[in-house]
Amino acid sequence: MERGAKERNQQLYKPCSNGIIAKEPVSLEQEIQEPRGGGGEFDMSDILYFCRRGVESIVDDEVTKRFTAEELESWNLLTRSNYNLHHISARLTVLWGLGVLIRYGFLLPLRVTLAVTGVGLLVVLTSIVGWLPNSRMKKYLSEKVNLMCYRICVRALTAIITYHDRYPKNGGICVANHTSPIDVLILASDGCYSMVGQAHGGLMGFIQKTLVKACPHIWFERSEVKDRHLVAKRLSDHVADKTKLPILIFPEGTCINNTSVMMFKKGSFEIDCTIYPVAIKYDPRFGNAFWNSSKFRMVTYLLHMMSSWAVVCSVWYLPPMKREEGEDAVQFANRVKSAIARKGGLVDLLWDGGLKRSKVKEVFKEEQQKLYSKVLVKLLSLR
């Protein structure tokens, strides 16, 4: 792990093109006017615009591809993307075979041992610390135990991390783009946080229950309305106490493939406190950190990560931000999101990451209808 400006001489990894179809940023009004040639009333040619956009979205939309692994420009010797080309090169096949032996025969057993050690120590030591009475000593031991165990777990992934600037201070909320559960390890190995997130079952749920014994983390069920109000109250109380650790939140609410930043939920931005934005950018050439939770279970995903070459990423701690006068929570969330996207070299999207598991809401369709109506009214007024 490195801190500082060593990356000044390193070229940041640039992802491959954003899509199959080249799209210029053109307004709805301009696109509709092009085939119709003017006029303010409905024209049959307007249908062509909506048909074309529909077909373009089927071929290559900017949302659903954020929920699958990013495509690489070149092969990284991890998987075979085309089984019909097994024997295209004997030398390449031998090289891939050697890579498999190294990754599964040497690196994987070593990493699994480190991971089991780190998680085991985390469970045992946080349980012991949890029995201590609330005091400065308990807080000190909790921070040291968490840092030690998270750093062991990070080494189990052979993580090469470059941190820029300093981690957040107490009494605020740290928000970051979300790619996988190891985002927590990446950040928590550099500083201690109180975490807020979805309650899980299985291995993740067991670890969550253990962590909360030594540190005031907040786990909730997203589907429960009463949980939302309780979480908001606990967040407000937490940030009001300047002696408590900063809260770590991933406002997207789901894992995105690290090519973009999607809509931030406004909940954490409604609280009157300092927001510390953090941008995390992974280099997929050494291993794809994205967790496709609809395809892989947690243990399967972790085995994939521990059998990759390494986890290489950069972390930028951005300057603290506060809500401006007259700015609502949604506008503030979008401003923070844009800052993270710019720093991490990610695409800034307004779409909700919840589309990963749910259908498109009717409000989105109504919004397109409103935009079209406004265009017609504007064109009619110009006649």
From TrEMBL:
It comes from the Eukaryota. One of its GO terms (molecular function) is glycerol-3-phosphate O-acyltransferase activity. Pathway: Phospholipid metabolism; Lipid metabolism. It holds the Pfam family Acyltransferase. Keywords: Acyltransferase, Lipid biosynthesis, Lipid metabolism, Membrane, Phospholipid biosynthesis, Phospholipid metabolism, Transferase, Transmembrane, Transmembrane helix. One of its GO terms (cellular component) is endoplasmic reticulum. Its main location: membrane. It comes from Denticeps clupeoides (denticle herring). Residues 172-283 form the Phospholipid/glycerol acyltransferase domain. PANTHER family: GLYCEROL-3-PHOSPHATE ACYLTRANSFERASE 4, PHOSPHOLIPID ACYLTRANSFERASE. This is Phospholipid/glycerol acyltransferase domain-containing protein. The chain crosses the membrane at residues 88-106, 112-132. It is found in: Membrane. One of its GO terms (biological process) is phospholipid biosynthetic process. InterPro entries: LPCAT1-like (IPR045252), Plipid/glycerol_acylTrfase (IPR002123). Belongs to the 1-acyl-sn-glycerol-3-phosphate acyltransferase family.
